[in-house]
Amino acid sequence: MADSAQAQKLVYLVTGGCGFLGEHVVRMLLQQEPQLRELRIFDLHLGPWLEELKTGPVQVTAIQGDVTQAHEVAAAVAGAHVVIHTAGLVDVFGKTSPETIHEVNVQGTRNVIEACVQTGTRFLVYTSSMEVVGPNIKGQPFYRGNENTPYEAVHRHPYPCSKALAEQLVLEANGRKVLGGLPLVTCALRPTGIYGEGHQIMRDFYHQGLRLGGRLFRAIPASVEHGRVYVGNVAWMHVLVARELQHRAALMGGQVYFCYDNSPYKSYEDFNMEFLGPCGLRLVGTRPLLPYWLLLFLAALNVLLQWLLRPLLLYAPLLNPYTLAMANTTFTVSTDKARRHFGYEPLFSWEESRTRTIRWVQAVEGSAQ
Ligand SMILES: NC(=O)C1=CN([C@@H]2O[C@H](COP(=O)(O)OP(=O)(O)OC[C@H]3O[C@@H](n4cnc5c(N)ncnc54)[C@H](O)[C@@H]3O)[C@@H](O)[C@H]2O)C=CC1
Ligand SMILES: C[C@@H](CO)CCC[C@@H](C)[C@H]1CC[C@H]2[C@@H]3[C@H](O)CC4=CC(=O)CC[C@]4(C)[C@H]3CC[C@]12C
């Protein structure tokens, strides 16, 4: 229970607080966490928008730092009550080496855990991913599954491998004694594909559509369902889980939660059209215009081109064998574990999430002209 003696007493640290999700978590904490005294935002690249936050009642401390540097992480964590670790390298396009992805996502997470242990921080929330479960390399569907649904989680790609390892480290750390002797309480949230204001891939699809004369061409069958969740609801779930972890440690410690809301189950492309359609784009074709084998061939060709061009430039298109497999495999969640354990209900309805995202795409359009 939030007793009044604790009001405005807590120090939170958000790693990756200047990223797509991180910025929403930061803003949500400032709006929805009455116990906040200081909010520390740790990121490799600090955004200029942080300045506007510094005038409010909560002390906002921006820390430029690297999660792979243990001493920088320890300095940022020292004195924090709660850490929300959302920093990570999200790369499924081959922009970064597998070693770097591992270093940031796995070693970075290890550094965060060790910093909590050494400095006495007791509560750690980790932003994991649905990719920890799947889709797997066999392309098996996961249809409206929950946290207990059996599924063969087998990965080869560096990103899901790194997220799975990092999540395991976080869960195993639950119960470790931190400085002062009390136990560390950890949990992990697994968002499905996040969308909303600031979503770079949505922006890329939008610009691609504009370049193609207001059209996008269907590549994925409409029957393949892909789980999506609005960024505001993901942020809200982080705020809520961080708060409730402090009161329900026995129930929530060491647990994983899918991060979900009421966004409809649709194919990746049809879902994007919910926003891009009202912004003037059209999805051409009721069925994929190219056969799957040809898409696979083009995806493989992109890998070859990426490799050949690497000495000259970074060629990292959206289509590669991994993203094609992802988009082509049904992966949707249906669960109420977060509601049962910590009272989560989405803060934004589907209609509001959709409206906000459309407004943002329209603003992107305006700023591009
Ligand atoms: N975008 C999505 O659909 C999903 C994302 N996630 C997870 O959510 C988290 C946030 O993802 P996004 O906001 O989409 O990515 P993002 O790339 O927009 O944000 C990541 C942030 O981490 C920071 N960062 C990267 N390397 C760092 C380092 N070495 N030290 C300190 N900061 C560093 C970046 O500067 C960036 O601000 C990630 O952990 C990702 O794995 C999980 C599920 C879905
Ligand atoms: C074949 C293309 C034709 O239009 C479509 C390619 C779409 C892909 C770029 C995306 C399809 C599925 C996405 C991923 C999924 O939403 C789950 C994710 C979880 C994360 O933790 C990070 C992001 C992502 C890997 C996301 C990335 C983009 C897709 C592969």
UniProtKB/TrEMBL annotation:
GO terms for biological process: steroid biosynthetic process. The keyword Cytoplasm does not apply. Its EC number is 1.1.1.181. Residues 13-283 form the 3-beta hydroxysteroid dehydrogenase/isomerase domain. Pathway: Steroid biosynthesis; Lipid metabolism; steroid biosynthesis. It catalyses: 7alpha-hydroxycholesterol + NAD(+) = 7alpha-hydroxycholest-4-en-3-one + NADH + H(+); 7alpha,25-dihydroxycholesterol + NAD(+) = 7alpha,25-dihydroxy-4-cholesten-3-one + NADH + H(+); (24S)-7alpha-dihydroxycholesterol + NAD(+) = (24S)-7alpha,24-dihydroxycholest-4-en-3-one + NADH + H(+); (25R)-cholest-5-en-3beta,7alpha,26-triol + NAD(+) = (25R)-7alpha,26-dihydroxycholest-4-en-3-one + NADH + H(+). Gene3D superfamilies: NAD(P)-binding Rossmann-like Domain. The chain crosses the membrane at residues 289-309. SUPFAM superfamilies: NAD(P)-binding Rossmann-fold domains. Keywords: Endoplasmic reticulum, Lipid metabolism, Membrane, NAD, Oxidoreductase, Steroidogenesis, Transmembrane, Transmembrane helix. It is a multi-pass membrane protein. One of its GO terms (cellular component) is endoplasmic reticulum membrane. It is found in: Endoplasmic reticulum membrane. The keyword S-adenosyl-L-methionine does not apply. InterPro entries: 3Beta_OHSteriod_DH/Estase (IPR002225), NAD(P)-bd_dom_sf (IPR036291), NAD(P)_dehydrat-like (IPR050425). It is an enzyme of class 1 (oxidoreductase). GO terms for molecular function: cholest-5-ene-3-beta,7-alpha-diol 3-beta-dehydrogenase activity. Belongs to the 3-beta-HSD family. The 3-beta-HSD enzymatic system plays a crucial role in the biosynthesis of all classes of hormonal steroids. HSD VII is active against four 7-alpha-hydroxylated sterols. Does not metabolize several different C(19/21) steroids as substrates. Involved in bile acid synthesis. Plays a key role in cell positioning and movement in lymphoid tissues by mediating degradation of 7-alpha,25-dihydroxycholesterol (7-alpha,25-OHC): 7-alpha,25-OHC acts as a ligand for the G protein-coupled receptor GPR183/EBI2, a chemotactic receptor for a number of lymphoid cells. This is 3 beta-hydroxysteroid dehydrogenase type 7. It comes from Sousa chinensis.
